[in-house]
Structure formats: structure tokens, C-alpha cells
Amino acid sequence: MDAKKKKLFRWRGATLYMLLFDIFSVNLAFGLALWIRYDCRFSVIPDGYLHAWLSFVPIYAVVCIVVYYLMKLYNSIWKFASFDELTRSGAAVLITAAIHTLAITLIFYRMPLTYYVLGTVFQFVCTIGIRFSVRYVQMERKRMKTMRAASAQPRVMLIGAGLAGRMLLRDMLFSNVARYQVLCIIDDDKSKWYRSIDGIPVVGGRDDILFNVKKFAIDKIFVAIPSASAQDRRDILNICKETGCELKNLPGIYQLVNDEVTVSSMKDVDIEDLLGREPIRVNTEEVLRFTEGKTILVTGGGGSIGSELCRQIAAHSPKKLIIFDIYENSAYDLQMELMRSRPELDLEVLIGSVRDSRRVLQVFRDYRPDIVYHAAAHKHVPLMEASPCEAIKNNALGTYKTAYAAMLFGCSRFVLISTDKAVNPTNIMGASKRICEMIVQSFDRMIKEGRVSDIPALYTHAEDGEDELFTIQPDTPPKTEFVAVRFGNVLGSNGSVIPLFKRQIAAGGPVTVTHPDIIRYFMTIPEAVSLVLQADVYAKGGEVFVLDMGSPVKIDTLARNLIKLSGYKPDEDIKIVYTGLRPGEKLYEEKLMDDENITKTANDLIYVGHPIDFDADDFLKRLGVLLEAAYRNDGEIKQLVEDLVPTYCPAPNSSDSIPEERRCSAS
Predict the structure, then answer these.
(1) Angle (CA) 308 312 315, round 5°
(2) Are 425 and 648 spatial neighbours (Cβ–Cβ below 8 Å)?
(3) I need a surface site. Which of 284, 419, 478, 487 has the fewest CB within 10 A?
(4) In terms of DSSP H, where are the helices of 539-584?
(5) Three-state secondary structure call for residue 540
């Protein structure tokens, strides 16, 4: 007999057994009701009642089988019984009980009231009991099998006895594959203490985590508190990371809303979870009004900041979004992502360099963007120290060429993505970004003063008249507003220290930290970008917006926390090695220069640093000299940058090209 026939035979056999049970139980239910009505003594039951019940037995058996069949009670797979089966079973019992009441009264004898009531109750219990007992037995077998298999699996503490925690617990207890042995639950709600959920005890609140980790020899901690505040999550995770256990976290509330709370939905605890900041809120209506129906260009659109800018802009109904990047792989990946998530978006992906004057002018001429977010830049400090001319070509001159094209072709707003490394820079990357800020401030000032003709067209590979692109003049007086937005390090960005630490931990160490006292400001990429978009709404031209990055974080503490989150002990399981400050690096970053006056905006996390006064004409003249030196790959380029940027104080280890007496010591 093949497998299909065996299954069919088993199904028919099970159905036959259930049918026979129903015939027996439904009639027994009413006989039992009659017996109880007369004090559980058959001898005192009147003959009329007993004869009526016995005579109605075969009739009622047929009635029940027909009704149960019509209600599909013999078609269900009862090990998967649910509320639907319960409803249909209850309806079948009520229908047959009503027929019983009418038929036995009209055909045979009027029975006692308790006979009808108790008989119906007993029939319901028997009908439901036999069917749902199948599911109960299956679940109990599965649970026992899972528990036996789980005894050799990692020992888990669950944090959170709310809805998400209960859903996660049941997935672990009743999943097909036993992977975890859940031993205890932690919850701050005292009303749940010393009680249990599915047999697992709730042993206390967050203050009891360390004690119970030792008591139950816990290997892993699952945190399922998606609705808790960021501060509460941070405090709980900070306790958990001291246990040495591997930590898993339910990322957000949307899993709970979508019934996706399973073990597979748990993620590793990221370092940003320990920052403990509440989600940053922006006025989405203001951002929507600013971007809706406009053509927006993002340079460096495939990078970590640029790509997130594109994602958030795409959600605010632009007329067209243009991604411009030199690296085709990341641009292509972003294009595919946006085409999937935003099929209605008018998207254009262009490959090119902001250093290429012809390409930049061509893009602006063909697409006439209304708003430009200029995120294209070299950002790696030590690499730029080794290749300073490339930092100037790409960052400073790339910004100049893009800003000039924006002014020439009637762009209404140019937003420079800057960095806190531009404040009192000690490295060429920071200095190049400070030059970028000075460029946009110069453009904004000279446009407002009506001196557009005094802004030179700095090109390196075209003479006047060689190409029509280089002879274009603005049709009307330009009204482009130029602003800069300055923020610190973003978690997870290209070149961020976090991915490096994770790779080093995965390799067994050591984790390299440049200095035990080095500190940095951190923010997640989506947070930073949402504030950039909000700051753009507030701009009037010429401002340098400064984002509040929260409290600074010691990189050494960051590394140790990452090691702990990975289930290891710093300096024991994973060594930490201090390598010394790299070329151009300083111990701390600043957000404002001393001469920048700061005012608050409508958003508590966005400030305005007003422009520092400088001679724009002299600056632009020297910038032309700097361009020529950069394209000659002049070895004295850093000295020229220091002459151009008064706040640039090269660190002692940042260059050998600057005379000793001209160097500044890093703060």
C-alpha cells in the first residue's frame, strides 16, 4: 500500500471512530442528564421518561450525524482546530438540541426542563472535548518533544512578558525545530512576578537580571520590549551586556503589529541601541511642502549619506529624483531598491564625477534641478592625509563646480553636507570641507550683493569658447540659496569604525582603538538625514546648520560595549590594542568654531551657526591658485590650504611638507 493510500485509510478510520463516538456520546449526554435529574438513581426515573429517551436514541443518532456532516465536522483536521471549528461545533450542538427538544416532546413525551438543558451542555462538552483533545494531545506531544530536544540547546532568558514576549515564547516552545531552552522571564510589571506563562516563571524585574543569569546558567538573552522607551531599552541592555550572554533584540513595534514576532525576527543588539536616544522627530508636513513636485539632485547619491537622502526624499513626492555618483555599483543597487519600493517615483540614475566640469554642467543643463544635496566627497581622514591633492580636487573643487552649475542653471537651493571635522581642522579632509563651507558662503553672499559676475568659473580642461557649455550665462539674475549642514560621525556609514570593530571581533580580535581617550559624536544615518531635510526647510541662505549629535561617546567604550554585546569579555576573550592617533586625527571633534554665533531653530536638535566674516574676493582668487596646485599634484598643497583656511592647524603627524614653525598642536 503506497503512502497516499495509507493516509486516506487513516483519515477514513479516524472519521469512522469519531462518528461512532458521536452516536454514543450525544445520546449518553441526554441519558446522563436524565440520570442526574433523578439524583443519579435509575430506579426512580419514571418509565415514561426512560422509554421516551431510549426510543429516541436511534432517531437522534441519525439527526446528529446528518447535522454534523452538513456542518463539516467530519472534514476538519482536528490537530489544527481553531475558533472556526469551535463555532461550527457549537452551532451543530444547538441545532441538534433544538431538534431533540421538539421531536421528543411532540413524538414521545414532554421531558423535564433539566433534561433539555443539561443534555445540551453535556452534548457540547462531549462534541468539543473529543475534537479539541486531538489538538491538545498533538500540542502536548510536540511540547514534550521540543522540551526534550531543547535540554541540549542554549539556555535563554526572555525579557518582556507583554504581547511580544508571549508571542516569542510560544514560537520557541512550539516551533517545529527546538533551538532554545527558555528558563525564565524578566518583566518590570510587578503584577506578573512569581507567576508563569506557558509554564515559564516570571522571576522579577531588570534588577534581577544578573542574579537569574547566574541562577539559571543563561547563555542567551532575548529582549522583546518593542514599545518600551529608548531610555528603558538602553538601561536594560546596559545591564544585559554585563552578563556576558549573547543578546538578541526585537527591532521595532512593526513586527508586533504584523504578527511577525518569531525567533527569526530577532536581531543582534546594535551599538546604537545603547545610545538610548528617543527617535528624532521632524515636521514631515514642512519637508513634504518643500520637496513635493520638485526636481531634486543628490550628488554622491550611492554613498551611505547620499543613499539615505534619496530614500527619504523619495518618500516626500518629488517630481523627479536624480542620483549622481561616480561609483556605479552602489548607484545601481540603490536604483533597484527604489524601483522596488517606489515604483511611482520618476527616477534618473547618472554616472559621473563632480570633478568633471563638462559632465556636471551637462547634467544641470538637461535636468534643471530645483534643489541639490551635495553629498559627494572623500571622507577618510588618513587616506586623504596621504593624498591631499585628491581631497582638494574632489571635495573643494567638486563642490565649487557643482555650486557654480547650480547657480548658472537657476537652482533654488544648494545644500552642502558638511562635517564637524571642518571645525578647527587638523587634517586635510576637514580643511577641504571647511573650504566647501566657505565656497557656499561666498556664493550666497555675492549673489545677494548682485556680484555674480565676480564669481570666477574655475575650470581646468576648457578654454573660453572651446565648448558651448562653458559660455552659458544665466538667463536671469541667480537667486540660488546656498547653505551647509554640519554633523559628526554616523553609525554604519562607509568608513565608520563600527563595521571595522565587528569584523575584528568576528576574527577573534584584536580590536584596534587609536587612543583610550578619543571621543566622537554619533548619530544614525536616518536620524542625520531627516534632520538635514528639516534644516533645509529653515534655510534662508548662507547659514551653516549644526545638528545636535547628543553626548560624545568614547571610542574605547564603544569598542568594549561591542565586544560585550557579542558575548565576549574585553581584554580577556578579545584584546583591545591602542595604535596611536592616525595622521590628521585629533582626540575630539568640535561642532562650532569660536567665532560662529549660534541660534536655535524650531527643532531642538538643529542650530544655526552664522557665517564667519572673510574676504570672499580674496578667498576665490586664492582658490583658483589652489585648484592649479592640486591638479599639478603640488607637494606644498597643505601649506596653500593653511594659507587659505585660517582655522586649519595641521597636527604634528599630519604632514612633513609644513615647516615646524607653522604647525599647530592639536587640542
Answers:
(1) 145
(2) yes
(3) 284
(4) 555-565
(5) coil
Q: Which residues pair with 156 in a beta bridge?
A: 182, 220
How many CB atoms within 10 Å of residue 549? Answer: 24
Question: Regarding beta strands 196-197 and 200-204, do their DSSP bridges make them parallel or antiparallel, or are they unpaired?
Answer: antiparallel
Residue with cell 562653458: 470
For the beta carbon of residue 92, count every other beta carbon within 10 angstroms: 22
SS (H, E, C) 29-96: HHHHHHHHHCCCCHHHCCHHHHHHHHHHHHHHHHHHHHHHHHCCCCCCCHHHCCHHHHHHHHHHHHHH
What structural domains and CATH numbers belong to the chain?
3-145 (no CATH), 151-269 (3.40.50.720), 284-644 (3.40.50.720)
d(C-alpha 336, C-alpha 600), whole Å: 39
Which amino acid does the sequence have at 408?
L
* Alpha carbons 215 and 205: distance in angstroms, whole number: 15
Assess contact for 226 and 255: CB atoms under 8 A.
yes
As a three-state string, the secondary structure of 360-374 is: HHHHHHHHCCCEEEE
Residue 300 to residue 375: CA distance in whole angstroms: 5
- In the chain (667 residues long), the average pLDDT of successive 10-residue segments reads 50 69 81 83 81 85 85 66 72 87 86 86 81 70 62 81 84 69 89 87 90 90 82 83 81 47 69 63 74 92 90 90 93 93 92 92 93 92 90 93 92 90 88 92 90 80 54 74 82 67 85 83 76 82 78 79 80 86 66 59 77 83 89 89 87 48 40
Which residues are 247's β-sheet partners? 221
How far apart, in whole angstroms, are the C-alpha atoms of residue 339 and residue 335? 6
Q: Can you give the three-state secondary structure of 626-644, one letter per residue? A: HHHHHHCCCCCHHHHHHHH
Give the largest Cα separation in the chain, rounded: 123
HEC string of 106-118 equals: HHHCCCCHHHHHH
Distance CA 441, CA 459 (A): 20
Collapsed DSSP state (helix, strand, coil) of residue 510: coil
Q: Which residue has the cell 547650480?
A: 406
Q: Identify the bridge partners of residue 539 per DSSP, sorted by sequence position.
A: none
Cα 608 from Cα 484, distance rounded (Å): 10
Among 406, 298, 277, CA closest to 350: 298
Cβ-contact 488, 549 below 8 angstroms: yes
Question: What distance lies between CA 302 and its chain's CA centroid?
Answer: 19
Half-sphere exposure of 178 (CA within 13 A, CB side): 17
> Residues 303, 331: contact at Cβ < 8 Å?
no
- Nearest Cα to 245, choosing from 254, 253, 236? 236
47, 25 Cβ separation under 8 angstroms: no
CA distance 92 to 124: 9
